[in-house]
Amino acid sequence: MTFEILDQISNLKNSPKIETSKYSHGIHPYPAKYIPQIPHKIISSFTNERHLVLDPFCGCGTTLLEAKLLGRDAVGIDLNPIGALVSRVKTYSITKEDIQFFAAFRLNLITTYKKIKHLTYWIPEIPRIEHWFSQCAINGLGKIVNEIRKVEDLDKRRILNLVLSNIVVNVSNQESETRFAAKENNISYERVLELFISKLDDTLTKLITSTYVAKFNTATTSVYLANTLTISEILKPNTVDIIVTSPPYLNSFDYYLYHKFRVFWLSYPENLSEVIPVSQIQKNEIGSRYKYSGVNGEHISIFREEMKDCFNSFNTILKPSKLLFLVVGDSIVKGQFFKMDDYYNNLLSETGFRLLSKVSYPMSDASRSFISTNTVNKHYEKKETHILAFEAINQDKFQINNVSSKIVVNTSNKTPEVLEVVEIPKQIINGTRFYLNIKTVTALTHGIVKYPAKYIPQIPEWAIKNFSTEGDIVLDPFNGSGTSSLECLINKRSYTGIDISPLAILASDVKTKYIPYEKINLYSKKLPSLIEKNRQSADYEKINFKLENFWFNPNVLNEIFLIKSAICEIEDENVKKLMLLSLSSIIKKVSNQDEGQLKVKRDPKKVLNGVPDVKELFFKKLEKDSLAINKLQVFKDSNLINEHIVGSAYDLMEIVKEKNKYDLIVTSPPYINAMNYPMYHRYELLLLGLVNPNDYIGHQEMYIGTERVYAKDYKNYEDLLPNLARFKFLNEKLKVIFEGEPKRCYITKKYFEEMYSFFKQAYQVLKKGKTMVIVCGTNTIKGVPIDTSYFLSELAQEVGFKEVLNFSYIIRKHRFKLTRHKTAGKINNDIIVVLEK
Question: Rounded CA gap, 550 and 653, in Å?
Answer without folding.
Answer: 42
